[in-house]
Amino acid sequence: MRSVHETLRGVPFLRELPESTLLEIARRCVEKVHLRGEVIFLEGDPPKGLLVVREGAVKIYKTGDGGREQILEIEGPGRSVAELPLLDGRPYPASCAAVHDSILLVVRPRDFRELLERHPDLTQAVIASLASRLRRMVMLVQELSLRDVRQRLMDHFQELAQERGSFELTLSHQELAARIGTVREIVSRTMSKLEKDGVIRVDGKTVTLL
Question: pLDDT exceeding 90 applies to what percent of the chain?
Answer without folding.
Answer: 31
